[in-house]
């Protein structure tokens, strides 16, 4: 189970930090990521971090967002700086693992980020 929090309303240029608390499993072996979705659009990957700490970002957030994880706390983070109106979306955390045919995937409930100009 994943519980996302930290969303809110900020002005352009502001910052927010999202958190995703995991429970019910040990997620240190999972690839974890943040996705976002706006009304009528497909959910898109924002940033992901592998079990061994390999990180990737979508181009539009590079240099502004930082993904991190604290395996001891079973928590995923997304620090978002210099926010832009186009970052407005509902943000979802995701955990994914695959060992052979054993595929497991979990989604958080979403947290809304609104950036005003």
Would you spell out the secondary-structure blueprint of this structure?
Blueprint: E1 2-5, E2 8-11, E3 16-22, E4 31-37, E5 44-49, E6 55-57, E7 65-70, E8 75-80, E9 89-99, E10 102-107, E11 111-116
Parallel strand pairs: 2-11
Antiparallel strand pairs: 1-3, 3-8, 4-5, 4-9, 5-6, 7-8, 9-10, 9-11
Structure description:
With 117 residues, this protein is an all-beta fold. The protein is 0% helix and 56% strand. It has no helices and 11 strands. The strands form 2 sheets. Strands 2, 4, 5, 6, 9, 10 and 11 form a 7-stranded mixed β-sheet that branches. It has a 4-stranded antiparallel β-sheet with strand order 1-3-8-7, with no helix packed on it.
Short characterization:
By secondary structure, the protein is mainly beta.
Which key terms come to mind for this protein?
four-stranded antiparallel sheet; seven-stranded mixed sheet; 117 residues; mainly beta
Number of strands: 11
What share of the residues lie within helices? Answer: under 10%
Radius of gyration: 14 Å
- Main sheet characteristics: 7 strands, mixed
Estimate the strand proportion. Answer: over 45%
Round the mean pLDDT to the nearest integer and report it. 96
- Multimerization status: single chain
> What is the number of helical segments per DSSP (H or I, 4+ residues)?
0
Shape: globular
Structural class: mainly beta
Run of helices and strands: EEEEEEEEEEE
User: End-to-end distance, in Å?
Assistant: 34 Å
Segments where pLDDT lies below 50 for 5+ residues? Answer: none
């Amino acid at each position: 189970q994943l519980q996302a929090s930290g969303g809110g309303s900020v002005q352009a240029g502001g910052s927010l930090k999202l958190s995703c608390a995991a429970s019910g499993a040990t997620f240190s072996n999972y690839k974890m990521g943040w996705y976002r979705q706006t009304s009528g659009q497909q959910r898109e990957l924002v940033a992901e971090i592998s079990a061994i700490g390999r990180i990737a970002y979508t181009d539009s957030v590079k240099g502004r967002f930082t993904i991190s994880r604290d395996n001891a706390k079973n928590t995923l983070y997304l620090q978002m700086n210099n926010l832009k109106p186009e970052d407005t979306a509902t943000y979802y955390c995701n955990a994914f693992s695959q060992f052979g045919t054993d595929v497991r995937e979990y989604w958080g409930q979403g947290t809304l980020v609104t950036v005003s100009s």
